[in-house]
Amino acid sequence: MTIVVAIDGPAAAGKGTLARRVAKDLNLAYLDTGLLYRATGFAVIQAGGDLDDANDALKAAQNLTPTDLENEKLRHDEAAQAASKVAVVQPVRDELLEFQRRFASQPPAGKAGAVLDGRDIGTVVCPDAPVKLFVTASCEVRAQRRLKELQDRGLEAIYAQVLQDMKDRDARDSQRAAAPLKAADDAVILDTSDLGIEEVIEQAKSIISEKA
């Protein structure tokens, strides 16, 4: 049986770091679903297509592979801007939803299972996943983490502004009509506010061993 671990949570809660480590330690495939729209938009650019053309965007989404998500350029602003354009195309959203479900049910590289992290994995993408974790932390702690991340990248940032941006994003994510950010009814809540990453990883692996 394929092991599927769904990890959701707000920005800077630590879900990405946790998901990558759990996947590595348990030899499972890992999917950062947040990169899907960036990869789709970037593929349109690379193909010389039009980001405002729904057909170009859909074609890029249909041809997307897990390997495409490994491109470091997806972290750059060009990919982020492109993502915002293709994300409004409903057929693209439908295609990428199926991409995530295929990844979960048929993990690449012959892996025995998959770890997916995002905003709606446990509620929409993989509602039947045997293991669902909702990783969270106080808004203040998450703002401090994001501030450090920005400063480590050499960017100027002010804590008060980062905190406000975090609160605004939380509101948008939790109040949107389509797939709002929320914990699945059967998800285990992991609050990382006062925990080190190794503690969180051990807790997650313990939960997975009990449920998978």
From TrEMBL:
E.C. code: 2.7.4.25
Keyword Zinc-finger (UniProt): no
Residues involved in ATP binding: 9-17
Catalytic function, reaction form: CMP + ATP = CDP + ADP; dCMP + ATP = dCDP + ADP
Keyword Kinase: yes
Primary location class: cytoplasm
GO cellular component: cytosol
Domain Cytidylate kinase: 5-208
Record localization: Cytoplasm
Biological process terms in GO annotation: nucleobase-containing small molecule interconversion; pyrimidine nucleotide metabolic process
Classification via PANTHER family: CYTIDYLATE KINASE, CYTIDYLATE KINASE/PANTOATE-BETA-ALANINE LIGASE
Protein name: Cytidylate kinase
Gene that encodes the chain: cmk
